[in-house]
Amino acid sequence: MVGALQDDHHHRRYYLPALLARYRRAFANIRTWVYEDSGTLIEHQLINGELDAALMIASTLESASSFDTLTLIRSPWCLWAPVRHRLAGLGTAVSISELRGEPVVELRSEELERAAGDLWRRSGHEPSVSARTRSVEATRNLVATGCGISILPEVLYGGVALP
């Protein structure tokens, strides 16, 4: 399946709550709190000692050598497409060139935009963006209802990896 999305909520895979619950059980005496911000700001806060730890996309770090990193998850890029899309259900890898001209729903995130932009640039193709959103759920629903396709890490939805 090439990340075929129906207009339902049966395929959610959020890893942060389970990871955080395990951490809190193992280290009950350590105070934890969660907030979201730009990767650049969080990286800056780590370097300046304002934060002790962060969960981030390591491939987009600007100053990775400034601190220790530990890879928790490796997540390949996947195509999200509506159920009736020509590439849905193939069960095979899809090349970026096969997506040329497809309308794209873009999930707005500094880290994802940088990494996806690199992916498109390496292919020599520019995405034809039909919608931009900061919400994974909005991206999921826009794709499911045929607004376009999206290329995102598999960890956000279990699909098939791009080569």
Quick structural gist:
By secondary structure, the chain is an alpha/beta fold. The protein has helices at residues 16-26, 39-47, 110-123, 136-144, and strands at residues 4-5, 77-82, 103-107, 128-133, 150-153.
Secondary-structure topology with pairs:
Elements: E1 4-5, H1 16-26, H2 39-47, E2 77-82, E3 103-107, H3 110-123, E4 128-133, H4 136-144, E5 150-153
Parallel strand pairs: 1-2, 3-4
Antiparallel strand pairs: 2-5
Oligomer: single chain
Fraction of residues in helices?
25-40%
Give me the count of strands: 5
- By CATH, the superfamily of the largest domain comes out as Periplasmic binding protein-like II
For the record, the CATH architecture of the largest domain stands as 3-Layer(aba) Sandwich
Largest beta sheet: what is the strand line-up? 1-2-5
Annotated CATH topology of the largest domain: D-Maltodextrin-Binding Protein, domain 2
Measured by DSSP, the beta-strand proportion falls in 5-15%
**Total separate domains:** 2
Count, helices: 4
Radius of gyration using CA atoms only: 17 Å
